[in-house]
Amino acid sequence: MMAKFGAYFLTASNFVLTDAAESIVNIFASSFAFFSIYLSSRPRDENHPYGHGKVEFFSVFIEGALIGIAGIIIIFKSAYNIFYPHEISELITGAIIIGCTGIVNGGLGHYIVRKGKQLRSITLEADGKHLITDMVTSVGLVVGLLLIHFTKITWLDSALSILVALYILFSSYKLIRRSVSGLMDETDFAVVTEVISVLDKKRRDAWIDMHNFRAQKYGNELHIDCHLTLPNYYDLNQVHNEVTLVDRLINSEVTTTELFIHTDPCVPQCCHYCRMPNCPIRSEAKSEEITWTMDKVIRNKKYFE
Questions:
Q1: Is the pLDDT of residue 81 over 80?
Q2: Among the three residues 163, 183, 203, which one is the final residue of a domain in this structure?
Q3: Please, is 301 exposed, middle or buried when counting C-beta atoms within 10 Å of its C-beta (0-12, 13-18, 19+)?
Q4: Domain range holding 70?
Q5: pTM here?
Q6: Quick count: other Cβ atoms within 10 Å of Cβ 67?
């Protein structure tokens, strides 16, 4: 941030100011992200029985809002300077400074995004993508400063800064959209599809069908509740063992997950797709193989209904 503002005071360029202003946002957003990651890692308590992970979505919302505010301010200032231009100078030196900061932010951003995916932290991913956005704008900035230097067209400074500000606003929208979807418990189709795929590939014969499948994210933890149909002659110990196997499978193959599984007894209408061998109560032979897919497991009814 200090390097970018140094470049701005050296050049008096609105184009450089766009990058410097976004760095202020980086400071505030990363500070709040630091706090939210600390808070989301705290264990559950009486007031937060599902943990503190939702604060990460709020953190992303704050970051997106701050980026958006910076973009709007830049647009107004740049539009003003199109009609009331001012002298700019030392563009080559400014381009070198901005280029160096872009390299640092790009490397750091890619590292944070990679760690965010490993730890399944939306806050880390958002902060890393923000820094990558900063790198992209810095690259555009360097190109633009060189273009202004060699063409001597000064109004390009304000025009290009408006274009960068529009890109910043688009990044702001994507962050806010993601945070709102998390706070509203919108389905994370990538995670849910992965869970269902693993369950289908390693499905046991006793798991006749799974339905009313719902998933919520709290920080890096996934909470799933669903209905699992099991043979109706299973005793309570057998039912418990099957539920435990589902739990272990998802936690070992996908991500840290807390499951709430409601078990249903099978009915004669399930027989045509039931895999159970030597079933003592089968009323008809198995005649259909049903693959577990999202459209089937999210419905609140058995497959024959």
A1: no
A2: 183
A3: exposed
A4: 2-183
A5: 0.64
A6: 27
